[in-house]
Design a protein that fits this description.
four-stranded antiparallel sheet, single chain, 5 helices, Immunoglobulin-like, 14 strands, C8orf32 fold, 37% strand, alpha+beta
Length: 321
């Protein structure tokens, strides 16, 4: 099915505005910024499939996250597949970090399904660390757009006394900023044993237990950086989470750097990963949720229902390199 011109232009406009706001110079050998290498193109299908068990539902509104553009990621909407019983599909950008696709279904009876699935071409580059890091420093003046990356988030208790004490222990102003943050990275990998768990724990619990998976290890890294005044955030890709941290160069320009806190190798300041970025950030206010959310996950509401509305999140590769 071809894309309607309005839907296509709306999607492109969001991606263009986002890329413009978040442009980051790709560094050469002398610049302390990330270097983008090894670009690869893949196609993904993302969207929702809705159904009702044992009755019907009316006034259905469902949402799911869609990726936006980043310096290492560009996006092209290829096709959409929207069933006839979907009355409206719109997009909403949250904090310039993730999109929500919002679909409206007036009525759905038992045995029926409603679908809204888009096929997206994603070009993704690996990130290599800068060759020159000596000029990088902790940011002294935090822009208003970055202050959320210094606040506590779900499972990231950056103001907890144990996290504050850990930050004081690991981060020393006498060291270059890059080596300071790398010291946090190394300490967590040496002292937190990787152990997968389906349930997300707080970073304080991971610190107490000495175990955690990519969620907890990322949270602990982020919380420790934030406690020391270094902006940091979580990055969510299919099946995995990793952190990014923010430093300034000698001209006062800020740069985001990733690190693979859970995994083999020593990928500090680099990210050899082609999976699409679903969101960056870990503190979102979402309609219908009373508290701040870590992830922009799929949601489903219905004004009236005699049955049980069900939601299936479609997130699958359609063509990989």
């Amino acid at each position: 099915m071809k894309i309607s011109p309005v839907l296509h232009l709306f999607f492109v406009a969001l991606c263009w505005n986002h890329a413009t706001c978040h442009a980051q110079t790709t560094g050469d050998d002398e610049e302390p910024s990330i270097r983008l290498v090894n670009p690869t193109t893949s196609e993904w299908e993302m969207g929702l499939r809705l159904s009702v068990a044992g009755g019907e539902a009316t006034g259905i509104v469902a949402t799911c996250p869609l990726p936006v553009e980043w310096p290492e990621q560009s996006i092209k909407l290829l096709t959409k597949d929207i069933s006839d019983n979907v009355s409206r599909v719109t997009f909403k950008e949250l904090d310039e970090a993730v999109q929500q696709m919002i679909i409206v279904v007036p009525r759905l009876q038992a045995g029926q399904t409603a679908e809204a699935i888009v096929r997206i071409e994603i070009s993704k580059s690996w990130i290599e660390a800068p060759n020159q890091t000596a000029s990088l420093t902790r940011p002294r003046k935090i822009p208003s757009t970055l202050r959320t990356y210094l606040q506590p988030s779900p499972f990231i208790e950056s103001r907890d006394r144990k996290i504050q004490a850990l930050a004081e222990q690991l981060l020393d102003d006498d060291e270059p900023a890059w080596q300071e943050v790398e010291g946090v990275f190394d300490w967590i990998r040496e002292n937190i044993e990787y152990r997968f768990d389906e349930k997300i724990k707080s970073c304080v619990q991971a610190l107490n237990d000495g175990v955690g998976d990519c969620e907890e290890m990322s949270s602990l890294f982020i919380a420790t950086c934030r406690a020391a005044g270094i902006p940091a955030r979580a990055v969510w890709i299919p099946g995995h989470t990793y952190p990014e941290f923010y430093l300034n160069d000698a001209n006062g320009q800020g740069h985001w750097f990733p690190c693979q806190i859970a995994g083999e190798g020593h990928d500090f300041g680099r990210m050899p990963e082609h999976k699409p970025i679903l969101q960056k950030g870990d503190r979102f206010r979402i309609t219908g949720a009373r508290s701040v959310q870590r992830y922009v996950k799929p949601t489903l509401t219905a004004k009236n229902a005699t049955g049980t509305p069900k939601i299936e999140w479609i997130l699958r590769p359609a063509r990989t390199p």
